[in-house]
């Protein structure tokens, strides 16, 4: 059982190491959706994504002895950067397993933040085996990008801050990839909101979380053909029970809807966000009737975009 006090402790623990990111509004986007939208801009977080929160909390929860031996994770993107920067800030060695197919820009970012990269073939099996080998050789503690309770609680602090600033939200919408953000957000909405529902947004191309809620068990994806490169992973046994209990529904969106929402945010709000982040606005645009005249929080999950790969 999780408690309000637990989330408050996590927030206090990580506050010296993270940015308290701004909440932005857009009159035009309010008119387009018919709702009052409040964007929690984690694209302005350190290393450019919400994952800095969970990474920092997970490292701080380790014993001093564990911290000296370091941490290891496997990630092709934002969590690799988050662990690298959080570890560097806290003086902890970080070993990052990245698939050989990971974008060069993300590998460069990990190096900049001081992460020790080991490349492996781009399959989950190879990623896990390489991480296990490093753990055996170094004694480093493994931290999962989304299926770790300390990570999940850290991610929930973004919605906590949003609700502190805007305490009458009726919905909070977040993208769904591995499930850490939506699970943490749903706990924050439950404990700090006033009857505030959490809704996940997911591409049709990788709708494993939607199907998991329908079937009651963790489903997988056969393809990962989505522009939302942060949403290709699947739920885990730590976050799925939280999602089942506290997330009210998951809205699926088409690729073209993600691209249109991405463009709207870039053009109208003048901020750089990654395609995964735009999925949440795409869900609100798709289901306008549900959100009409409601106060809706949207978590902009990150802004780490490869400018050579833009869809417009």
UniProtKB/TrEMBL annotation:
Q: Which domain of life is it from?
A: Bacteria
The Swiss-Prot or TrEMBL record lists the needed cofactor(s) as:
pyridoxal 5'-phosphate
| Keywords carried by this UniProt record | Pyridoxal phosphate
Do you know which InterPro entries this protein is assigned to? TrpB-like_PALP, TrpB-like_PALP_sf
**CDD domains, per the entry:** Thr-dehyd (cd01562)
A Pfam cross-reference name = PALP
Gene3D superfamilies associated with the record: 3.40.50.1100
Ranges for domain Tryptophan synthase beta chain-like PALP: 15-302
What is the protein name given in its UniProt record? Answer: Pyridoxal-phosphate dependent enzyme
